[in-house]
Amino acid sequence: MHLPLVAGNIRQHGPALLDSAKRADRRACPWSSITRKKGHKMNLKMKSHGILPIVTLLFAICSALYLLPDLQPNAYAEDPVVSQETIDFMTKTSQAMAEVAEIVKPSIVNISTTRTMKMAGSPGGPLFDDPFFRRFFGDRFKHPNQPREFKKASLGSGVVVSADGYILTNNHVIKGADEINVLLPDKKQFKGKVIGTDPKTDLSVIKIAATDLKAISWGDSDKLKVGELVLAIGSPYGLNQTVTMGIVSAVGRANVGIAEYEDFIQTDAAINPGNSGGALVNAKAELVGINTAIFSRTGGYQGIGFAIPSNMAKTVIDSLITQGKVIRGWLGVSVQPITSELARQFELEEEFGALVADVVEGSPAEQAGILRGDVIVDFNNEKVEEPYNLRNTVASTHPGDSVDLTVIRNGKYEKLTVIIGELPGEAQAPQPTTDYKNALKGVSVQNLTPAIYQQLDLPERIKGVVISGVKAGSPAETRLLMGDVILEINRQAVSGLEDYESVVSKIKPNEEVLLLVFRKGSTVFITITPN
């Protein structure tokens, strides 16, 4: 009999329950009737007019609770029921993402590289010149201080962007490589050739001698929304064709310190070492990003990964394939972010935009009438939130294009029109080789700009080219540093890229070169010997 837990039922069935309780009490607790022997003060015999009614009432309540099926201790809770609608939705979502993975996987390749590394030799000593020692060990220790070479292997990923063998990857995946091997999903292997690199975005294009490849479909990264589902596909730790799922955690991440031009997509899809150069795709199986880096304190996945937006990547690789270099737009200003203090000083209502700190003489900005102290808030009908927004947008604008921009000047909005110029290029590093007959082969330089003068704190009198990169294994690797300014080559003044390339082209094979370099506030002479 089920007894609902209400007071009326307890009163109605009370007498019967009391009798039942007494009988059960005597059966279950035979010691309750035991009485101490004569002479003992305490009598343990239960009395019906003392505590017994209270105990009996509690027993009745417990019995009633026990009789309720849902409250019996041995009763099992019913399994939660998942609605058919939920099951259908989850099944369709799962099937959709599996289909996306199947579509994209044929376009993702494994990239392995080897590069020659040098290790300083162990110090020598009198022991190595001892005839007795050499009698047993020969001359292998005769020159102990000579550097030793060894091969270093690394792994990464790549994305097929054309059926005839062009592959997009990160620059750091193939940087300094002596040999590049590409493994396709069908297990076929090819040697990779570097077509072009862009360290400023950490992107590179390589090519393999293959045809009829499955090229990936491009997506519009500008349309990505935070919270959108994405898949990351690559070769983490050499595990080919690994697929992980996550969401877009944020867009427009900059100042991460990975590349010079940054506009990263942040995702929580698992990205690990070896994923670099792999694909980040949306639910339409379209490429929306190139997985590039992770934020980690352990070296492995911690839920924060960064991918280069597909729109930025496509602009770079199209330029590398067709031009052999990246052609970027140039405005000719140095800008800085708006702080609360600057906003107050310039009487700005909001803290956004790019404050013009300097204008390059003769630049498109000067010709358009942009002044120091202007705050650029709109460029080509796109709001400028931060300086990096302006920098990235200008860089992706084709030189020669006419663009409208809006500035705040003395508290008032003004419209200006500027003809975008071409960003002064870099002297490109030669193709990977181990034959360095020219002492400056492997050195990348660029013209000095006002921003570089400010960043390196260079005196105005310094004229030359600044070193932007030195290839591993090149003759200059141990002699020159990034940020060094080359003033002279073989006693000939170098005032810019044109002078540099002219002088370098006249260096004879295997000729030792004398450089005058400005480094950390002082000038020094440096000699470099090829090979």
Compute the number of strand runs.
29
What is the CATH topology classification name of the largest domain? Thrombin, subunit H
| Domain unit count | 4
Rounded radius of gyration (Å): 38 Å
Roughly how much helix do the residues carry, as a percent range?
A: 10-25%
- Report the sheet-strand fraction: 25-35%
In the sheet with the most strands, the strands line up as 5-4-1-2-3-7-6
The major sheet is characterized as: 7 strands, antiparallel
Low-confidence stretches: 1-18, 24-48, 427-434
Ends distance: 100 Å
The overall pLDDT, averaged over residues, is 81
Class of the largest domain in CATH? Answer: Mainly Beta
- How many helices does DSSP assign? 12
Shape-level CATH architecture of the largest domain: Beta Barrel
- Derived from helix and strand composition plus strand pairing, the structural class reads alpha+beta
The outline comes out as globular
What's a concise summary of this model?
With 531 residues, the protein is an alpha+beta fold.
List keywords for this structure.
531 residues, 12 helices, Pdz3 Domain, Thrombin, subunit H, alpha+beta, 7-stranded antiparallel sheet
